[in-house]
């Protein structure tokens, strides 16, 4: 008997930033708590934004655009509405009129800031343009992006292998650099990657939100369970178990690659409990429309046993990524990436 309970606890009269999903995959099994980030209710949904004139402007789900447009940060940036499907806000440099984006976090978010500065050299990760400290919050200013990968794949239904290979190689390189520098990304998904150019050929990781900076780079055992349901790995669903953060990231990469090439998620269900049961079994079908090398890489990533998954160091040497083949010609896979918030929001 599968059951799932969604908890949305109240804290001081306002909603918490994440949704806690408790799921038992079979009768008598202990409940597993999974923290599911809610982009429209993340820590960027702070109670108020404060300008240098100490004028308080409330920000919340019902905030009007007029109120948002009156929000000034440090007499330098004007804050606008939230970017669709993201935890960032649009903003503009008042003097230069340059369009940027802003992430608002608590002043205790040291891990996020330190992770960004640790990887500031990497062109595949959005660099922090400026950090502004005000009262209880930090305002992280980032360059503006040109759309996210989830929306792009959904609009295209699926990507040709030649295009997917170029984009996925950039994603794999990003994960490899993070792991090499002792950073586990967690909550990896299509929407986390945004386009740095108008031609949509260059990807960047939007932010290192939810990332963990390991105290010892070679020890990546984690116990905090969080992520978008369709992307979580089987070991995260085991009650009370520690898991390898890097191996969990590789599973999420497998979901990303599958979705880019097929146009749907490898594990699909409208109910959390049924979805988690499918993920725990680890059974999925790869359409024959994909090349043999692409199918091989997907299977190398979506292995139930974490120790059997390909690593971030080895993935770049996989034949599908390492060799430039002529574009794979096959019958169409007429699928569409769901718009449901259960998966990529």
UniProtKB/TrEMBL annotation:
<dbReference type="InterPro" id="IPR011009">
    <property type="entry name" value="Kinase-like_dom_sf"/>
</dbReference>
<dbReference type="InterPro" id="IPR024104">
    <property type="entry name" value="Tribbles/Ser_Thr_kinase_40"/>
</dbReference>
<dbReference type="GO" id="GO:0032436">
    <property type="term" value="P:positive regulation of proteasomal ubiquitin-dependent protein catabolic process"/>
</dbReference>
<dbReference type="Pfam" id="PF00069">
    <property type="entry name" value="Pkinase"/>
</dbReference>
<dbReference type="GO" id="GO:0005524">
    <property type="term" value="F:ATP binding"/>
</dbReference>
<dbReference type="InterPro" id="IPR000719">
    <property type="entry name" value="Prot_kinase_dom"/>
</dbReference>
<comment type="similarity">
    <text>Belongs to the protein kinase superfamily. CAMK Ser/Thr protein kinase family. Tribbles subfamily.</text>
</comment>
<dbReference type="GO" id="GO:0004672">
    <property type="term" value="F:protein kinase activity"/>
</dbReference>
<dbReference type="GO" id="GO:0005634">
    <property type="term" value="C:nucleus"/>
</dbReference>
<protein>
    <recommendedName>
        <fullName>Protein kinase domain-containing protein</fullName>
    </recommendedName>
</protein>
<dbReference type="GO" id="GO:0031434">
    <property type="term" value="F:mitogen-activated protein kinase kinase binding"/>
</dbReference>
<feature type="domain" description="Protein kinase">
    <location>
        <begin position="74"/>
        <end position="321"/>
    </location>
</feature>
């Amino acid at each position: 008997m599968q059951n799932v309970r969604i908890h949305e606890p109240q804290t001081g009269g306002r909603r918490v930033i994440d949704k806690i999903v408790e799921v038992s995959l079979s009768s008598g099994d202990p409940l597993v708590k999974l923290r599911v980030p809610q982009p429209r209710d993340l820590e960027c949904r702070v109670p108020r934004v404060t300008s240098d004139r100490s004028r308080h402007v409330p920000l919340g789900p019902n905030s009007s655009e007029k109120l948002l447009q009156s929000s000034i940060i440090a007499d330098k940036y004007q804050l606008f509405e939230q970017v669709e499907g993201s935890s960032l806000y649009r903003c503009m440099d008042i003097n230069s009129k340059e369009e940027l984006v802003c992430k608002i976090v608590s002043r205790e978010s040291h891990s996020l800031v330190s992770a960004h500065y640790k990887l500031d050299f990497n062109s595949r990760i959005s660099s922090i343009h400026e950090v502004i400290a005000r009262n209880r919050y930090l305002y992280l200013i980032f360059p503006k992006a040109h759309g996210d990968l989830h929306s792009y794949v959904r609009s295209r239904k699926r990507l040709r292998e030649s295009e997917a290979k170029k984009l996925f190689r950039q994603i794999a390189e990003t994960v490899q650099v993070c792991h090499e520098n002792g950073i586990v990304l967690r909550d990896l998904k299509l929407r986390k990657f945004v386009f740095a150019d108008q031609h949509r050929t260059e990807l960047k990781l939007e932010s290192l939100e939810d990332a963990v900076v390991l105290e010892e780079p070679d020890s990546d055992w984690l116990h905090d369970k969080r992520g978008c349901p369709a992307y979580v790995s089987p070991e995260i669903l085991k009650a009370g178990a520690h898991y390898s953060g890097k191996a969990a990231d590789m599973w999420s990469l497998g979901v990303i690659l599958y979705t880019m090439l097929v146009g749907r998620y490898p594990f699909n269900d409208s109910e959390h409990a049924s979805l988690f049961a499918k993920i725990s079994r680890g059974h999925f079908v790869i359409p024959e429309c994909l090349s043999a090398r692409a199918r091989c890489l997907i299977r190398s990533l979506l292995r139930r046993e974490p120790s059997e998954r390909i690593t971030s160091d080895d993935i770049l040497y996989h034949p599908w990524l390492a060799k430039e083949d002529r574009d794979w010609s096959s019958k169409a896979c007429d699928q569409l990436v769901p718009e449901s918030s259960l998966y990529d929001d």
